Amino acid sequence: MDAKKIQVLLSTLKTGSFLKAADSLGYTPSGLTHMMDSLEKDIGITILKRGRFGICLTPEGEKLLPLFEDFAAAEQKIRNEVRSLQSRRQEIIRIGAYASVARNWLPSLLSGFYLEHPKVSIETVVLGREELYNALKKREVDMIFACSGTECKHEFVSLAKDYYRAVLPLGYPTAQETIFALKEFEGAPFIMPSFMKDIDVQKALETNNISIKMLAASADDPVVLSMVSGGLGISMLSDLVLQGASEKVKIMPLEPNVSRILGIAVLSMQSLSPLVKNFIAYVKRHKIFAQ
User: Fold this and answer.
1) Spatial distance between the Cα atoms of 104 and 123, rounded to a whole number of angstroms
2) CA–CA dist 11, 124 (Å, integer)
3) Boundary-marking domain end, from 85, 100, 128
4) pTM over 0.70, yes/no
5) Lower Cβ count inside 10 Å, N or C end of the chain?
6) CATH number, domain with residue 12
7) What is the pLDDT of residues 130-150, one digit of tens each?
8) Do 131 and 63 share a structural domain?
9) CA 125 to CA 136: how far, in whole Å?
10) What pLDDT digit, counting tens, does each position of 37-80 carry?
11) How far is CA 146 from CA 141, 204, 213, 272, in A?
């Protein structure tokens, strides 16, 4: 049943004539008459009596009138609620991020943005790369802080290059004192971060034809550090992950360098709310990413 036709019916009944209703609603008399004929055809019942002195309801129409009024009121309530939700939606930013980004970047970014937009509400979720892109694809988040991926079509704003380091137990023997050659991972007991979903680590090893002896895989970076600290094996983690780490481990730069580009991924810049666009612009000019 067409809600618009019901609204027009109720307005027409208030005026008592098609002519007056058409004038107040901006329809032609013939157009409004056609709409009421269409409504009666939709429900299969004649609800209006047409006469020389105006219109009135048929007995069937009288019985249906309270239901029409309830229908119109419910439809208006839905419209009001949708507008309310849309208005609130403009004040919310939903962010997905790696744990390392949430720990090291978001506190500074969000606190500064709150000063400029004190009424904003920000929801954050911490996930791995694959899960972040799934959330973005399902529109469960507006944006994600991650590496550019192939999980779904998206637009990407580069923010920073994040270098990987060799993470070793204290006293672990190395060929050089200041640099850890990638080839030294060959055959060594390796603890793989992100449950083997760290694409950048896997790519670096495969590109350099390095076969590792994988001892364990963990989705939690602190667990990887704890395992390395305990002498269970060696690993490769990025600077952002290692920032603020308290575990007693040896950290060495890699040769050749291995890095990833971190940034913001969105489905479409054009479809973002003005608030989310403002936040992305704020992030891009933040001192964290100053060149």
Assistant:
1) 17
2) 47
3) 85
4) no
5) C
6) 1.10.10.10
7) 899 999 999 999 999 998 866
8) no
9) 11
10) 999 998 899 988 887 778 888 999 899 999 988 988 888 888 87
11) 13, 18, 28, 18
